[in-house]
Amino acid sequence: MAKTFKASKLQVLTKIIIPANISTFINSLKVNIGLSLVGVISGEFLVSKAGLGYLIVYGGQVFKLDLVMASVIILGIVAGIMYAGVLLLEKLILQTKKFK
User: What is the pLDDT of residue 97?
Assistant: First the structure.
């Protein structure tokens, strides 16, 4: 219908497609927070000399459970903060009249 009224591609994108898919974008962000942390930590498992992944591997090798658990707790806190940030972003975006 927008093309019938000679809307440009940019207008169709900004006025129809993005507002219709904003909830999908937000839900994808929520899922991908955890997956991004998994990717970072598994990369640190393999090649890092520092970081939380390195501490988990090192703590497991020298039998220091406190290093492993501290790293896992820090990861949980970081994931929680990032998730709360996405929830705040969702509230801010969905409160505007444009996306209701």
Answer: 63
Distance CA 7, CA 66 (A): 61
Exposure pattern of 68-90 as b/e (b: 16+ CB <10 Å)? beebeeebeeeeeebeeebeeeb
| Nearest CA among 93, 76, 71 for reference residue 24 | 93
* pLDDT tens column, 27-75: 999 999 888 888 888 888 888 888 888 888 888 889 989 989 999 999 9
Q: For the purposes of burial, counting CB atoms within 10 Å of the CB of 52, is it exposed (0-12), middle (13-18) or buried (19 or more)?
A: buried
Helix axes 18-47, 65-95, angle to 10 degrees: 170
Residues 6 or more apart in contact with residue 16 via CB below 8 angstroms: 2
